[in-house]
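Q: Hi! First time doing this. I have a protein sequence and I read that you can turn it into a structure. Is that right? Here it is:
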Amino acid sequence: MFRELTYSDVNRARAIADVEATFVMDEEAFRGFYDRNARGVWAYLSRVTGDRQLADDLLQEAFYRFLRAASTGDKFESEAHRRNSLYQIATNLAKDARRRSFTRPAGILTGDDVERLADSSRGAGNHGSDIDRRTDVARAMEQLRPKDRAMLWLAYAEGASHDEIAGVIGVRPSSMKLLLFRARRRMAQLLGAGGGK
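A: Yes, that's right. Below is the predicted 3D structure, encoded as C-alpha coordinates:
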Protein backbone atom coordinates (compact mmCIF):
# COMPACT_ATOMS: atom_id res chain seq x y z
CA MET A 1 0.00 0.00 0.00
CA PHE A 2 1.36 3.38 -1.02
CA ARG A 3 1.36 6.23 1.50
CA GLU A 4 2.03 9.87 0.84
CA LEU A 5 4.43 11.28 3.36
CA THR A 6 5.63 14.82 3.87
CA TYR A 7 8.91 13.37 5.16
CA SER A 8 10.53 10.12 4.28
CA ASP A 9 10.33 7.53 7.05
CA VAL A 10 14.02 8.02 7.74
CA ASN A 11 13.68 11.79 8.08
CA ARG A 12 10.64 11.41 10.31
CA ALA A 13 12.52 8.98 12.57
CA ARG A 14 15.43 11.41 12.78
CA ALA A 15 13.10 14.29 13.67
CA ILE A 16 11.47 12.24 16.44
CA ALA A 17 14.86 11.15 17.77
CA ASP A 18 16.03 14.79 17.82
CA VAL A 19 12.95 15.88 19.79
CA GLU A 20 13.35 13.00 22.24
CA ALA A 21 17.04 13.72 22.70
CA THR A 22 16.16 17.30 23.60
CA PHE A 23 14.26 16.14 26.69
CA VAL A 24 16.53 13.34 27.90
CA MET A 25 17.96 14.23 31.29
CA ASP A 26 21.59 13.74 32.06
CA GLU A 27 22.88 14.08 35.63
CA GLU A 28 23.39 17.83 35.39
CA ALA A 29 19.92 18.39 33.91
CA PHE A 30 18.37 16.26 36.64
CA ARG A 31 20.19 18.17 39.39
CA GLY A 32 18.86 21.43 37.96
CA PHE A 33 15.34 19.99 37.72
CA TYR A 34 15.61 18.73 41.31
CA ASP A 35 16.87 22.09 42.58
CA ARG A 36 14.03 23.94 40.85
CA ASN A 37 11.26 21.62 42.05
CA ALA A 38 12.20 19.78 45.25
CA ARG A 39 11.23 22.51 47.67
CA GLY A 40 7.80 23.05 46.09
CA VAL A 41 7.03 19.34 45.87
CA TRP A 42 8.12 18.85 49.48
CA ALA A 43 5.89 21.71 50.66
CA TYR A 44 3.00 20.24 48.65
CA LEU A 45 3.53 16.77 50.12
CA SER A 46 3.90 18.19 53.61
CA ARG A 47 0.63 20.07 53.30
CA VAL A 48 -1.30 17.21 51.69
CA THR A 49 -0.11 14.51 54.09
CA GLY A 50 0.21 16.70 57.17
CA ASP A 51 3.46 14.95 58.06
CA ARG A 52 6.82 16.59 57.41
CA GLN A 53 8.83 13.39 57.89
CA LEU A 54 6.56 11.46 55.57
CA ALA A 55 6.93 14.30 53.05
CA ASP A 56 10.72 13.82 53.16
CA ASP A 57 10.34 10.13 52.32
CA LEU A 58 7.70 10.69 49.65
CA LEU A 59 9.79 13.42 48.01
CA GLN A 60 12.69 11.03 47.50
CA GLU A 61 10.37 8.29 46.28
CA ALA A 62 8.68 10.73 43.86
CA PHE A 63 11.99 11.71 42.26
CA TYR A 64 13.07 8.06 42.13
CA ARG A 65 9.86 7.06 40.35
CA PHE A 66 10.13 10.05 38.05
CA LEU A 67 13.63 8.97 37.00
CA ARG A 68 12.53 5.37 36.64
CA ALA A 69 9.61 6.41 34.42
CA ALA A 70 11.92 8.53 32.28
CA SER A 71 14.38 5.65 31.90
CA THR A 72 11.66 3.18 30.89
CA GLY A 73 10.53 5.23 27.93
CA ASP A 74 8.16 7.91 29.26
CA LYS A 75 8.88 10.98 27.19
CA PHE A 76 8.37 14.51 28.38
CA GLU A 77 7.36 17.22 25.95
CA SER A 78 8.66 20.11 28.02
CA GLU A 79 9.85 21.24 31.45
CA ALA A 80 6.22 21.91 32.42
CA HIS A 81 5.30 18.35 31.41
CA ARG A 82 8.12 16.98 33.57
CA ARG A 83 6.99 19.10 36.51
CA ASN A 84 3.35 18.03 36.16
CA SER A 85 4.40 14.40 35.95
CA LEU A 86 6.44 14.79 39.12
CA TYR A 87 3.47 16.33 40.96
CA GLN A 88 1.21 13.56 39.71
CA ILE A 89 3.64 10.95 41.03
CA ALA A 90 3.81 12.81 44.36
CA THR A 91 0.00 12.96 44.55
CA ASN A 92 -0.28 9.23 43.93
CA LEU A 93 2.32 8.49 46.59
CA ALA A 94 0.43 10.66 49.09
CA LYS A 95 -2.82 8.86 48.26
CA ASP A 96 -1.11 5.49 48.72
CA ALA A 97 0.34 6.56 52.06
CA ARG A 98 -3.07 7.73 53.22
CA ARG A 99 -4.64 4.42 52.16
CA ARG A 100 -2.05 2.54 54.17
CA SER A 101 -2.91 4.73 57.18
CA PHE A 102 0.64 5.95 57.58
CA THR A 103 -0.41 9.58 57.78
CA ARG A 104 -0.92 11.41 61.04
CA PRO A 105 -2.98 14.53 61.69
CA ALA A 106 -1.70 17.60 59.92
CA GLY A 107 1.20 19.35 61.59
CA ILE A 108 2.15 22.95 61.93
CA LEU A 109 2.84 24.96 58.81
CA THR A 110 6.41 26.05 58.29
CA GLY A 111 7.21 29.72 57.98
CA ASP A 112 7.56 29.35 54.21
CA ASP A 113 4.20 27.61 53.97
CA VAL A 114 2.47 30.36 55.88
CA GLU A 115 4.12 33.03 53.76
CA ARG A 116 2.79 31.39 50.62
CA LEU A 117 -0.72 30.73 51.91
CA ALA A 118 -1.50 33.82 53.98
CA ASP A 119 -3.09 36.71 52.14
CA SER A 120 -1.00 39.49 50.70
CA SER A 121 -2.08 42.07 53.27
CA ARG A 122 0.62 41.16 55.78
CA GLY A 123 1.87 44.73 55.89
CA ALA A 124 -1.47 46.11 57.05
CA GLY A 125 -2.34 46.05 60.71
CA ASN A 126 -0.21 44.84 63.54
CA HIS A 127 2.05 41.83 63.73
CA GLY A 128 -0.23 39.96 66.14
CA SER A 129 -3.16 39.94 63.72
CA ASP A 130 -0.86 38.55 61.00
CA ILE A 131 0.09 35.63 63.24
CA ASP A 132 -3.57 35.02 64.08
CA ARG A 133 -4.50 35.05 60.39
CA ARG A 134 -1.72 32.59 59.55
CA THR A 135 -2.78 30.31 62.39
CA ASP A 136 -6.38 30.44 61.16
CA VAL A 137 -5.28 29.51 57.63
CA ALA A 138 -3.23 26.61 58.98
CA ARG A 139 -6.14 25.31 61.08
CA ALA A 140 -8.57 25.63 58.21
CA MET A 141 -6.21 23.79 55.86
CA GLU A 142 -5.92 20.95 58.39
CA GLN A 143 -9.70 20.51 58.35
CA LEU A 144 -10.03 20.32 54.58
CA ARG A 145 -10.09 17.03 52.73
CA PRO A 146 -6.69 16.06 51.29
CA LYS A 147 -7.96 16.58 47.73
CA ASP A 148 -9.13 20.11 48.57
CA ARG A 149 -5.83 20.89 50.28
CA ALA A 150 -3.96 19.64 47.23
CA MET A 151 -6.05 21.71 44.81
CA LEU A 152 -5.75 24.90 46.86
CA TRP A 153 -2.04 24.40 47.39
CA LEU A 154 -1.34 23.79 43.72
CA ALA A 155 -3.51 26.72 42.62
CA TYR A 156 -2.40 29.38 45.09
CA ALA A 157 0.98 28.33 46.45
CA GLU A 158 2.39 26.78 43.28
CA GLY A 159 0.46 28.88 40.74
CA ALA A 160 -0.59 25.86 38.67
CA SER A 161 -3.21 26.21 35.94
CA HIS A 162 -6.54 24.39 36.06
CA ASP A 163 -5.32 21.90 33.44
CA GLU A 164 -2.14 21.21 35.42
CA ILE A 165 -4.07 20.71 38.66
CA ALA A 166 -6.53 18.39 36.93
CA GLY A 167 -3.66 16.29 35.61
CA VAL A 168 -2.03 16.06 39.02
CA ILE A 169 -5.21 15.34 40.98
CA GLY A 170 -6.62 13.00 38.35
CA VAL A 171 -9.87 14.74 37.43
CA ARG A 172 -11.29 16.07 34.18
CA PRO A 173 -10.01 19.56 33.34
CA SER A 174 -13.58 20.68 32.63
CA SER A 175 -14.57 20.02 36.26
CA MET A 176 -11.56 21.75 37.77
CA LYS A 177 -13.06 25.23 37.98
CA LEU A 178 -16.08 23.98 39.94
CA LEU A 179 -13.99 21.76 42.23
CA LEU A 180 -11.62 24.60 43.01
CA PHE A 181 -14.56 26.94 43.66
CA ARG A 182 -16.02 24.44 46.14
CA ALA A 183 -12.66 23.99 47.87
CA ARG A 184 -12.30 27.77 48.21
CA ARG A 185 -15.84 28.01 49.57
CA ARG A 186 -15.13 25.30 52.19
CA MET A 187 -11.93 27.13 53.14
CA ALA A 188 -13.83 30.43 53.46
CA GLN A 189 -16.48 28.74 55.62
CA LEU A 190 -13.80 27.35 57.92
CA LEU A 191 -12.10 30.72 58.15
CA GLY A 192 -15.46 32.41 58.77
CA ALA A 193 -16.07 29.99 61.63
CA GLY A 194 -12.89 31.14 63.34
CA GLY A 195 -10.38 29.05 61.44
CA GLY A 196 -11.52 25.83 63.07
CA LYS A 197 -11.01 26.97 66.65
